[in-house]
Design goal:
eight-stranded parallel beta barrel, two-stranded antiparallel sheet, TIM Barrel, 12 strands, alpha/beta, about 40% helix
Length: about 325
């Protein structure tokens, strides 16, 4: 039996989404440039099904996660669900990898032909007739201007291949250009208690323009779940990108202080620390939902209470004090 969670309007679209969504980066598996280490596909599918049964009604993935594998796993999970119970599927394009060289960093390409090819490949891997939200993962480094790639997105929407279109990791200047051509349905920026830059300009811009915001890494890629220590970082698999990331190395001590503050907030509300970390992001004007990753069904139970949790001014002050 599927549980019902509160929903909010997804910007100006006709979709209503839960305030937390299933993030599918880690289920792409290991052995690629930005992997989280090995992952069992059956456990991934079980996690997705548990999220849906718990009321979560959207999944965020990307073509590049596992070099197509995350989308394939999401597609398998969807096929096991009755059509009426399937979650919205959000995915991203614009990262092109080299077949046969899994260790190479993907190229950021946003030409019209490349994006159209990517959309078709994502539709096949996901096994759907329409993608609910298609996003450009990163601004391209191939020289394609915003005007060209955003018009391609608008065309895909007009043709019905995608239901809504959004941008990820884009700044206000690029958002302004895109919006002048056609409405930006959503933005996906990083945002958490240890990475707050989006609150300065991106969230106010989206709030003013009716653009939905789904933030990623609200738990700091695991740092704010209450489960991390310096020892655990040292024990991460060799192909886990976090082993060399500043947040997990030079910034680790400061970030763990914030995690401790969130743990105390969580204790006051009687929820896991992961839920408090995700809920922290949801209290900001302009934030529609938070993308929260999971590799097992049990991890979902750790952040699910964020879907209906509202933190207090005292909670926010405590986290701010820990940041210094």
């Amino acid at each position: 039996m599927t549980t019902t969670l509160p929903t909010v309007a997804f910007g100006r679209t006709d979709m209503q989404i839960t305030r937390v969504g299933f993030g599918a980066w880690a289920i792409g598996g290991g052995d690629w440039a930005f992997a989280w280490g090995p992952q069992d596909d059956e456990e991934s599918i079980a996690a997705i099904h548990h999220a849906v049964e718990s009321g979560v009604n959207w999944i965020d993935t990307a073509a590049v996660y596992g070099l197509g594998h995350s989308e394939e796993v999401v597609g398998r999970a969807l096929r096991d669900l009755p059509v009426g119970e399937r979650p919205y599927v959000f995915t991203k394009g614009g990262n092109v990898w080299t077949e046969g060289d899994r260790s190479a960093s993907p190229r950021r390409v946003a030409t019209r032909d490349s994006l159209r090819s990517e959309v078709d490949a994502s539709l096949r891997r996901l096994g759907v007739e329409q993608i609910d939200l298609y996003q450009l993962h990163w601004p391209p480094n191939d020289g394609t201007p915003v005007e060209v790639y955003w018009q391609t997105f608008l065309d895909l929407k007009a043709e019905g291949k995608v239901r809504a279109v959004g941008l990820s990791n884009h700044d206000v200047a690029r958002l302004d250009v895109a919006e002048s051509l056609g409405h930006v349905d959503s933005l996906q920026p990083p945002f958490s208690a240890i990475r707050q830059e989006a609150g300065d300009d991106l969230l106010p811009w989206c709030d003013a323009h009716g653009t939905a915001v789904i933030v990623y890494s609200p738990m700091g890629s695991g740092l704010l779940t209450g489960a991390f220590t310096a020892e655990r970082v040292a024990a991460l698999p060799a192909d886990d990108w976090r082993r060399s990331a500043p947040a997990f190395t030079t910034e680790l001590e400061a970030n763990l202080r914030v995690a401790d503050a969130l743990a105390r907030v969580a204790e006051r509300h009687g929820v896991p620390t992961a839920a408090a970390a995700a809920a922290w992001t949801l209290g900001f004007p302009g934030v529609t939902g938070a993308i929260v990753g999971a590799r097992t069904p049990a991890q979902i139970d750790g952040w699910l209470p964020a879907a209906s949790l509202t933190l207090t001014a005292e909670d926010y002050a405590a986290v701010a004090a820990a940041r210094g």
